[in-house]
């Protein structure tokens, strides 16, 4: 079965390409006051919009949502906790930086969230970040040292975690010891209600050699971004390195999408957003960035983190998603999130994964 994740918004949402014009969730420019409107405060608070996105994700049948790390957006741990409380089946991945706190503290928070959610919490550990963001948080670790710290972080977090239940024992740990360059633990280890829980599935990202090496040792899932150089070489290297550790790592591909009933409808949406960002037309035609099949390399100009994504009819996008080799699933995103989630759930996911998401497909595999 193909896994589908959806990356949640972190700075509000809306239909516009320019983030400052999107006012859903309390972000963006203030709405103009008018005497023709009810001046009483609205019934929806700033988090209610995001709650609707999370609800739409579960209703649409995606397997998991991701609360992304965003220094200027909502705090991912708070979003993840709210998503776990609101959902019943969907898994929730929280993205956080390894400088967030000690690995023991992150593990303890996660143990409580695993108890709350029935073991549905996952981690996406962010290693690289903008240097200005790192300095603003008091983090001066740079370069390869970031990967060395992430290695220690994951080692310690797993070390203090006990999958089997351990009876309470006062204030003592379970004897876990670690002495590293970034962390030191003496008599660590969880007991009582913090033990006997599944450790969060660990997602890691990046196409660099350091990222692949870290993921081969610690990752359960690795998320690749589609680039001009492709992901296949890094995916093969990851598989080889993981095998050296006696492990296997699942692979996801992160892609923004714009899918509609017809290809023309999808491109009409792109062109409306393109004209908003380039009203003078001097930046050329949006179709000049079209690649083979349904790929388009202009998503970063519309406010997305990635450059390359998919545009086309539901059949076009499904065909391209199905064509990616050595991929176990996808991290999709699109704006506005509520509407795009419902489109994906109703028209797209079952085309990509008929064996897992249609009755006929499931019966054929029984």
UniProtKB/TrEMBL annotation:
UniProt KW Oxidoreductase keyword: yes
Domain Luciferase-like: 43-324
Keywords: Flavoprotein, FMN, Monooxygenase, Oxidoreductase
Keyword Cytoplasm: no
Name used for this protein in its record: LLM class flavin-dependent oxidoreductase
């Amino acid at each position: 079965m193909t896994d589908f994740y959806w990356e949640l918004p972190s700075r509000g949402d809306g239909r516009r390409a320019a983030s400052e014009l999107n006012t859903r969730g309390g972000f963006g420019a203030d709405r103009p006051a008018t005497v023709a409107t009810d001046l009483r405060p609205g019934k929806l608070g700033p988090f209610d919009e995001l709650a609707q996105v999370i609800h739409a994700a579960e209703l649409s049948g995606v397997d998991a949502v991701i609360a992304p790390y965003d220094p200027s957006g909502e705090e991912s741990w708070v979003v993840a906790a709210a998503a776990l409380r609101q959902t019943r089946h969907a898994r929730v991945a929280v993205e956080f930086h390894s400088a967030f706190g000690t690995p023991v503290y992150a593990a303890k928070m996660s143990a409580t969230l695993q108890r709350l959610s029935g073991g549905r919490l996952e981690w996406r550990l962010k290693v690289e970040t903008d240097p200005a963001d790192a300095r603003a948080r008091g983090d001066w670790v740079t370069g390869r040292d970031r990967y060395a710290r992430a290695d220690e972080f994951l080692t310690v977090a797993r070390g203090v975690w006990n999958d089997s239940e351990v009876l309470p024992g006062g204030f003592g740990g379970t004897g876990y010891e670690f002495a590293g360059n970034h962390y030191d633990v003496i008599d660590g280890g969880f007991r009582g209600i913090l033990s006997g829980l599944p450790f969060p599935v660990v997602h890691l990202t990046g196409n660099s050699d350091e990222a692949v090496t870290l993921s081969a040792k610690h990752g359960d899932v690795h998320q690749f971004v589609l680039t001009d150089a492709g992901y296949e070489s890094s995916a093969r290297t990851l598989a080889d390195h993981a095998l050296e550790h006696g492990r296997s790592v699942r692979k996801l591909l992160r892609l923004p999408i714009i899918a509609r009933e017809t290809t023309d409808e999808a491109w009409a949406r792109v062109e409306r957003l393109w004209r908003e960002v380039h009203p003078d037309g001097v930046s050329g035609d949006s179709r000049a960035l079209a690649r083979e099949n349904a790929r388009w390399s202009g998503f970063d100009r519309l406010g997305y983190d990635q450059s390359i994504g998919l545009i086309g009819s539901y059949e076009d996008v499904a065909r391209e998603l199905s064509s990616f080799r050595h991929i176990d699933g996808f991290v999709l995103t699109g704006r506005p999130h509520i509407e795009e989630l419902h489109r994906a759930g109703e028209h797209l996911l079952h085309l990509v994964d008929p064996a897992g998401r249609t009755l006929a497909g499931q019966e054929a595999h029984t």
